[in-house]
Amino acid sequence: MTFSSTLQLLLISFGTGFEVAEVARIHNVVWVRMPCSLVHGYECFGGVFQFATVYKARDSVNDTIVAVKKIKLGSRAEAQDGINRTALREIKLLQELKHPNIINLMDVFGHKSNVSLVFDFMDTDLEVIIKDSNIVLTPANIKAYLLMTMQGLEYLHINWILHRDLKPNNLLVNCNGVLKIGDFGLAKFYGSPNRVYTHQVVTRWYRAPELLFGARMYGTGIDMWAVGCILAELLLRVPFLPGDSDLDQLTRIFQVLGTPTDETWPNLKELPDFIQFKTFPGTPLRHIFTAAGDDMLDLLAGLLSVSPLKRYNCHEALQAPYFSNKPAPTQGPQLPLPSSIRQNSEHEKPNLKRKLQDTADGGCIYLELSELFSS
What are the Protein kinase domain coordinates in residue numbering (predicted)? Predict the structure, then answer.
């Protein structure tokens, strides 16, 4: 099956309207022309990011707020027939996933050389919340954010999917305090015997030791390590292990958690990029996370096991006493959000057609649909 036919089938799978998409090959680029009525189903506000333009939009059929992610073409090496491969991967994975803590892919549509993905609108992300000095993160708040992350991740792993890029700014939060895992551009099905993967995944600060040593065969442990780093960041309010190179990252890990040995991590020396490190005894987690209780420290130790063989999986983590002990996790509407988000959600009018002023701090300006689909 050709790439363009695969794309067309994906578009058709999202329901009526997509079936009449016209796909034409011009200069080795797939152009997808959609009916005007479908394109005009969204009234958009926009903001430009590195690899895509993300718009806040209103679905004029359901009168709901959504996010429209307009994917730009990648380089020749990154694209097939004119569409970025990570976008296709994201579409294929997300159309199969339905969970309260996984971002919902509502629609997909194409126009010219772009493909747009329509998601739930999420007001902020965990990185913004962590960095906001006006927000107090209580133990109950931290437990709530961690529980929602773990529940979403357990669903992915049960369905044989590795996220491979968990970090605070990929954990999205809406104005009701619901956290959803987002950005599936690096996600991958796993579980095939002897299947080899790239080790250049996960942002370095959240990258598991086996990836830093060049492992090409790995499992859910890489996501669990990232969750451990995120939990540590929720407690410290700064990144836990901010290495500036892979070597520095490993050094920081071993300084805190101790250098692994043949006994604690069998077959470590067989990894492609293994190098011998100075022996560090490690630092007791209690000395770093002084406000954490024993149950949280036990969970952290299980998530941050240097050896992937001993690291918790999702089921083990969710069964840890930490989640059943008091305090109970804060309910979503009571979770803290940046004050600007609270104010916007309380005062935003249903009619989004009013023009927004473009501000120096990244505010959005209203875009006519002709502008959205002009390139």
Answer: 40-323
Return the CA Rg of the chain.
Answer: 22
Domain 124-333, what architecture?
Orthogonal Bundle (1.10)
Q: What is the pLDDT of residues 81-106, one digit of tens each?
A: 445 677 777 888 898 899 999 999 99
- Superfamily covering domain 3-122+350-372: Phosphorylase Kinase; domain 1 (3.30.200.20)
Annotated binding site for ATP: 69
Q: Which whole number is the average pLDDT over 304-328?
A: 97
Collect all residues with Cβ–Cβ distance below 8 Å to 301 and sequence separation of at least 6: 285
Specify the pLDDT at position 46.
45
Detail the residues annotated as belonging to a binding site.
Answer: 69
Catalytic residue among 165, 244, 294, 295: 165
Q: Is 165 a catalytic residue?
A: yes
Q: What is the pLDDT of residues 278-296, one digit of tens each?
A: 899 999 999 999 999 999 9
pLDDT for residue 23 is more than 50 = no
Distance CA 339, CA 324 (A): 30
* Cα dihedral 192/182/125/346 (nearest 10): -150
Residue 30, pLDDT above cutoff 70: no
